[in-house]
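Both lines are retained for reference:
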Amino acid sequence: MTSFASRAFCRVERLCRHLPVFLNTFLVFSITGEVSYLVVVEAPLEADQKKTEWSAYWKVVHLLAQYFMLGNICWNALLFLKTSPSIRGVFLGGEGMGQGWRYCYTCETHTPPRCSHCYDCKVCVLRRDHHCVFFGQCVGFRNYRYFLSCLLFMWSGLLYATLMNAEVFIVILKEGVTVHSILLLLIPWIMLISGQVSARAFSFAFIADTCVVGFLLVSAFFFFHLFLLFRGQTTREWYSSRRPYSLGLLGNLRHTLGLRWYLCWLCPLIPSPLPGDGITFQVTGSLEPSR
């Protein structure tokens, strides 16, 4: 009985850990589908423009732009999940341990500076920033590029979707700011269950609300991590107001995003080797390429 309960608990725990990933995936594709519908079917609103060459050209541009952002979001998220940020498989060399090294009793190994144990991932993580509950994995030295690139395209995609959904808010509020329109924007689920609105109106209102709320949340995360990137800090170091590892603006960009930091934003497939690929941790505790 105890064994069955333990297995059931592990399965529930694993499901809860991956639930945010499934939810985010559903929301991303729902927003993309709704914006595609707005572009292809609803825009432009004027009947005399719907079949013009200009209209067809801009629909193609809009669709290419949004699916470029969707592709980058999905591919960066996949690479983020596939890239392990842990110390497993990393050679921790040097003639001895320098200042800042610690011993992890859980992993039973010495760990370099900026490395800490994650009790969710159950492993020590190189240059650990935080454990991302939305992806169910830690953000560390080797996957930070994909995390930040995913945030960038999520931010730009949600900004685009919010602007495209401005017409939805205009249609809802066209008769004035009434109790019905305010409730539809604030609690569309209640309005649907009570039969006050159709499923179509609910879908547009819900996704429009999701775009606005998501844009505000992602903006906060994205600009906060840009701030940390420019300062050469992790989230843990920001809490303690320490900046012992800042290499200057250009050095921080190269150290975090790789030697081709100016290109890696365009596509996750562009190789941008990190300065510490093939890492060896020397006595000083700094990252240097192994020779």
In short: Residues 278-291 have pLDDT under 50 and may be disordered. The chain is about 55% helix and 10% strand.
